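Checked the freezer inventory, then went back to the computational side. Two predictions to log before the end of the day. The first one is the construct we discussed on Monday; recording sequence and C-alpha cells without edits.
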Amino acid sequence: MQWIMLLLAGISEITWAYFMKLSNGFTKVVPSITTLIFYVLSAVFLSLALKKLPLGTAYAMWTGFGIVGTSVLGILIYKETLNAAQIICIVLIVCGIVGLKIF
C-alpha cells in the first residue's frame, strides 16, 4: 500500500507542476487552485508512504517521478526538446528509481 501512496504522490507532484505552468504565475484562478490542491495531495500521499518507507528512498523516488514526469509532459505538451546529455541524465534517474525499488 505504501508504494501505491508513493506513486500517487508522484502523480500529484507532476500534476501540480503542470498546473503551475498553466497558472501563468498564479494569475489564472482555476489552474492556481488546482496547483494548490495537487500540491497538498502530493504532500499527503508522500506522508502516508513515509509511514512505512525509508525517508531517503521515498523522497528520492518522489522527486524522481516529478523530474521524469514533468520532462515527459514538457516534451509531449509543450514540444520542449532535450539534447543527448539530458536524455541520458533522465534515463539515469529512471534507473535510480528502479534500483531503489528493487534493492
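The second is the one RB wanted added to the comparison set:
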Amino acid sequence: MSEKQPTLAAITEISAHVDRLVETCRRLSEENRSLRQSQEQLANERAGLIARNEQARSRVEAMISRLKSLEQNQA
C-alpha cells in the first residue's frame, strides 16, 4: 500500500499541474485573440487616418496653387 500512496500523490500533483497548464493555454489563447482583434482595429484606424491626411494634404496643395494663381494674376 505504501507504494500506491506516493504514486497517487504524484498523479494528483501532475493532474493539478496539467489543469493549470490547460487554464494558462486557454487564457493565453483568449488574450491572443483579443490582441489580434485590437491590432486589426488599429490597422484599420491607421489606414483611415492616412487617407484623411492625404485628403487634407491634397486640399492644402490645391489651396496653395489657387493662391499662387491669384497672386500671379494680381501682379
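For RB: The first helix runs from residue 4 to 74. The chain has one domain: 1-75. Let me know if you want it refolded.
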